[in-house]
Amino acid sequence: MAKFLIVEARFYAHLNDQLIEGARSALTSAGHEVEVLTVPGALEIPGAIALAAESERYDGFVAIGVVIRGETYHFEIVAGESARAIMALTMDGIAIGNGILTVENDAQAEVRADPARKNKGGEAAQAALALLDLRSRFAN
Ligand SMILES: Nc1c(NC[C@H](O)[C@H](O)[C@H](O)CO)[nH]c(=O)[nH]c1=O
Ligand SMILES: CC(=O)[C@@H](O)COP(=O)(O)O
Q1: Catalytic residue among 3, 14, 57, 74
Q2: 71 close to ligand 2 (CB < 6 Angstrom)
Q3: What interface predicted TM-score (ipTM) does this complex get?
Q4: Is 90 exceeded by the pLDDT of residue 140?
Q5: Among candidate residues 1, 27, 12, the one with its CA nearest the CA of residue 103
Q6: What molecular function terms (GO) are annotated for this protein (predicted)?
Q7: How far apart are CA 65 and CA 10, in angstroms?
Q8: Alpha helix (H) residue ranges in the chain
Q9: What is the CATH number of domain 3-20+32-135?
């Protein structure tokens, strides 16, 4: 059994609840333990994962959040930089699945958050499981 930390940026609570449901279901059905940590926004997720990884209490991580385009360039920063920082952490060998939605509008977010439809939370959990499996395969 492995221990996973879901780090969620709780900007849109009802969407996060669905994304977390999908991620949690994927992880617990595979026999793993799950905790959830909440941060203000997607830009805080990579730092929170880095700090949690240093504690060595968790085997893998799932980033959960929703970034919906507004009127300014801030969307590109929040969406792009959170993804870039998460990618950098995975390149350091940390098993992270990225379930941060980066969408144009609420309708796109609803479809992707819903575990019964595109289930992007579950998809991100599966990615974290795959990276953890690779790490254990290459460690031996
Ligand atoms: N607009 C969204 C944000 N913005 C907040 C940033 O993520 C960050 O918390 C702030 O810039 C302070 O450092 N975050 C989301 O997760 N989703 C958004 O749509
Ligand atoms: C993704 C964002 O940062 C966005 O929600 C902010 O909206 P705006 O660009 O209209 O300030």
Answers
A1: 74
A2: yes
A3: 0.96
A4: no
A5: 12
A6: 6,7-dimethyl-8-ribityllumazine synthase activity
A7: 7
A8: 13-29, 45-55, 74-91, 106-113, 120-139
A9: 3.40.50.960
Ligand nearest to the CA of 67: 1
Distance CA 121, CA 62 (A): 8
Say if pTM beats, i.e. exceeds, 0.95. Answer: yes
What strands, in cross-sheet order, belong to the sheet with 60-68?
33-39, 3-9, 60-68, 96-103
Q: Is 62 annotated as a binding residue?
A: no
The residues spanned by each domain of the chain are 3-20+32-135
Whose C-alpha lies nearest to ligand 2, atom 6? Answer: 70
Q: Single out the residue of 78, 73, 128 nearest to residue 102, CA to CA.
A: 78
Q: Does residue 14 carry a catalytic annotation? A: no
Residue with CA closest to ligand 2 atom 5: 70
CB of 89 within 6 A of ligand 1: the answer is no
